Amino acid sequence: MLTSLLWILLMGFFVGQIARRLKAPPLFGMILAGIILGPEVANVLTSEILESAQSLRIIAVMIILMKAGLGLDWEKLAQQGSVAIRLGFLPATFEAVVVAIASIFLFQLDWMTGLLLGCVVGAESPAVIVPGMLRLKSLGWGVSKGIPDTILTGSAVSDVLLLLLFNLLLNFLSQGMDTGITLPGGLTLNALELLPLQVISQIAVGIGLGFCAARWLISLLVRQNWTQNSVQDTLVVAGIALLLVVTAEQIPLFSGYMAVMSTGYFLLEFDAPLAREIRKGFDGLWIGAEIILFVLMGASVQLSVLGDVLLPGLLLLAIGTLIGRGLGWYLSTLGSNWTPSERLFLLAGNSAKATVQAAIGAIPLAYGIAGGEIILAIAALSILVTAPLGAWAIPTFAPKLLQKGEVDPTKVNISRPVRLLVAVDTSPLSHPIMVKAADLARRGNSEVIVLHVLCTDDPLGLDNLRQSARQVFADIRHRFITVTGSISEEIVRTAQQYQVDEIIMGKRGKRSLSEQILVNSVSQAILETAAIPVIIVTPPYVLQ
């Protein structure tokens, strides 16, 4: 099993990176790696790893939904009224029903099995949508109307709805449909008629448990200090989130996935600094979980069946998206303040399939449901077609269809590392300036630009300065730059050119009176003209 896991991680990563360099989404390469490693091609994965695939998929879905919760913005959602709720119910429902009807004619499935296929196809992919929407939020596209948050919330609600319906239909097809309850008046409701009540109750209880879990985690991690660092914080939060999902499977009274997403949201609302650290940790967890999820999905694909359903499967996906989901999109945004171009963006931002299909696509076949191999093949086909298109279309069409607004830094992660500009000369003061800059860079994993403005011809001093910089910044990404011109103007110009976040420089040292006047005037000029923070370093030995 360990060898199989190594194959999954290494080959999934490198084939995914090859796909990225070819301008395709990495998950496309991961699925292809799974097909190659799977039993129908190289057959290098052990039966143990394939049997544990469902548990690994559950972990991956938990991680991506926690990331979604940690990035939600309630204020933006409130601006849209019922749009997010309608997006959570209407597009997925219409697509599932249209796919079920079309599958009767295209694949000769019965109504219930077709609806089971509709639940698989209709679900939206957190693996594509969540990173895509969070990136749009970090760049500001659509944030003024809360479009990324609306899509995130609607996607999560629709997945909860379809997962509930999927499990209910699975029980129907495997055990029968005679389960239900009898009301006091003698009226009997079967399980299908109870579905709306089940959906509402499971979502409500899931949100309530997410609220309680967030409160408890803040008490443990912040007030009682049970952990010592952000890594331990992330592990505890991940463990509690996974416990919610597992408990929901054993006691199906609430939606475990909704509870996980709610936990992330309430953590952000109650303690933003803790949520920011946990968000970074879950970003790291997702790197490995994504590879495992999509490689195992590819390993489950039956190539012969996939070839048989290719053309009718593509037609089925087109019908479901353009007719079913298109009608749902129209009704969801009816009466909203969205422009036609913003509504059109839903085609790019709200139609990708990947995570849920990878998690549940193989279950009907494992349960022995007639037509299970067709459901698995369509699930794989939907991923191979829509996931790459969605991952490409979201960043491509957002600048064309959405308006750019102000970014809320508490709701996103800024991926660009902090960049520091260290302005130095050949005096002894330069060394403590660089030492201070190195300390700050290590704390924030920052990049450093070391700038020296040439004023005099001092090749020996310049060589010593270069050598000192190499030693001080040996374990830090840095570059040494020399320019000529006015000192203050060149420092500000270079800071703008390299988009640095802070300027670090000295003020005065053991110099002659004329040198002190020059250095102090430079620092004062930069303080007055620079549009970014300026740190003035004054070593202990400097005369005050």
Structure overview:
This protein has 544 residues and is α/β, with parallel strands linked by helices. The chain is built from 23 helices and seven strands. The chain has helices at residues 2-21, 26-37, 47-51, 53-69, 74-79, 83-107, 111-122, 126-139, 147-175, 195-223, 230-250, 256-270, 272-300, 303-308, 310-332, 340-349, 355-360, 363-366, 372-401, 430-444, 459-472, 487-497, 513-529, and strands at residues 180-182, 188-190, 419-423, 447-454, 478-484, 502-506, 534-537. Strands 5-4-3-6-7 form a five-stranded parallel beta sheet, sandwiched between helices. Strand 6, helix 23 (513-529) and strand 7 (534-537) form a beta-alpha-beta unit. The longest helix has 30 residues, at 372-401. The chain is elongated. Mean pLDDT is 83; it is low at 509-519.
Number of helices: 23
Number of strands: 7
User: Could you state the order of secondary-structure elements as H and E?
Assistant: HHHHHHHHHEEHHHHHHHHHHEHEHEHEHE
Helix-strand category: alpha/beta
- Gross morphology is elongated
Mean pLDDT comes to 83
Strand content: 5-15%
The largest β sheet comes out as: 5 strands, parallel
Low-pLDDT sequence parts: 509-519
Strand order of the largest sheet: 5-4-3-6-7
Q: Output the radius of gyration.
A: 28 Å
- Helix % is 55-70%
N-end to C-end Cα span? 67 Å
